[in-house]
Structures are given as structure tokens and as C-alpha cells.
Predict the structure.
Amino acid sequence: MLRKVRDIVRCADTSARALYGDSPWRFVKYAYISLFSLNRFVVFHADGPSYAPPVEPLGLKEWPLAKLDAYRRDNILPKQFYADKLSGFRRAWVYAENGAAAYIIWVCESHDKSAFLHLGDGVTMPEFRRRGLHKRGLAGLLAELGREGHRHLYVVTHEGNSNGLRAAEAAGMRRTGTVYALGPFRFRKQTAHLRAN
């Protein structure tokens, strides 16, 4: 239990620093977004068996959690790098350049706990943005998961994340619904209901 609390505190600190720098107000801003704001998310769907990447896929590698742990010890990283500690995810796919993680995306499978659905969570590090890594990363991951036999693939993106919305569409996914969150409280929907939209 103590280890879980320590992981959450470390994740909050590194996420706040990654988003807001070293300002003493970083915790207030981070707490507001995490605990009190109402957020709307767009759900995207792709059919795994028939998925064909419409863009050149990014060369992602699945990183074992031990390798990710070693990388986290030496870097200030946003919360997306701690999905295993916070949500119990076990599969991280990373694109790295010269030893630096430029892009990470997590796979949340049907047996994993998810904030909304059975989804992934990803981020491009700020210094690597504006190069199309997210759409190419999504395309590469969706193709890989389709080859593994996953039938339904979902991504959830905040409605204010215009780059994320465009990336999901450019990767060949279709909008299939919305979900909401009030701070840490998630209002889940059944995936079958979303697919019917």
C-alpha cells in the first residue's frame, strides 16, 4: 500500500512538472484538472481484423516494464508513462530516438481495469511533437493488435485535444460516441452500445 501511495505521489509530481514546469502553482493546476473539472472525451473505434494503416506506421517496440522502470528513474515524465502504476496496465509500446522515448502508448486489454472502456493511453513528448508521431504510432499499434487477433480497438481522446482527434481520424478510426469524467469519476459506457452508434 505504501509503495502504491509513493508511486501516485511521484507520478503526480512528474506529471505536474512536465505540464507546468517548476512553478509552485503546478500542483494547484494539476489538482484542478485531475479532481474538479468536467471533461468530455470522444471515443474512436477500428475493426481489428480488417484494419489496414492509411499512413506509414511508426516503428514501435514493446518495452518490458523493467526497462520502462529504469527509464523513468532518470527522467521527468508525464503521467502517461506511469499507467502501469496507476491503472495496472501491462503493455507499453514506445518509439525512441537516440535513447530518448519520443512516444508512448499503452494497451489496455479486456482483462485490465480501464478508466472508461478497454482502451489505450498515449502521449508524444513535447520536443518530438508536430511530426505526426501520434497518428503513425496509432496506425502501427492498431495494425499490430489486429495481427494479434483483437477484434475491436478503441481510443479515447479529450474533446479539447484537437491534435489527438485528428490523429485518430488520420489513423483510420471512426468516431463512435462520447464519455464523460468529473475529476476522477468516470461515466463508463458499454462498448457494444458505442459500436451500435
